[in-house]
Design brief:
By secondary structure, the chain is mainly beta. Helices cover 9% and strands 22% of the residues. Strand 1 (22-24) and strand 2 form a beta hairpin. It is globular and about 35 Å long.
């Protein structure tokens, strides 16, 4: 599923969104760049991880990771 916002820009880096490398943040619901595969060359403005409690993948932008003090695999969040 492709997400869009009114500006067509990533809310983290403010650069143009690429359709196959964008996702909506689970916390703020704004769209950001995400690299879907490790071997791909693409911008990463957030992370994805498996939440053990809900057994679901969580996509979260860097800003929300810092604000919510969460990150992948129990690691500290990114700092923007």
């Amino acid at each position: 599923m492709l997400y869009t916002n009114s500006t067509g820009l990533c809310h983290i880096c403010l650069e143009e969104l690429v359709p196959i490398h964008q996702i909506e943040c689970a916390a703020c619901r704004l769209v950001f760049h995400i690299r879907m595969k490790e071997n791909e060359e693409a911008r990463d403005c957030g992370s994805v991880w498996l939440d053990e409690d809900s057994e679901a993948m969580v996509f979260m932008c860097k800003t929300c990771q810092v604000e919510n003090k969460v990150g992948p695999m129990g690691m500290p969040p990114y700092f923007v």
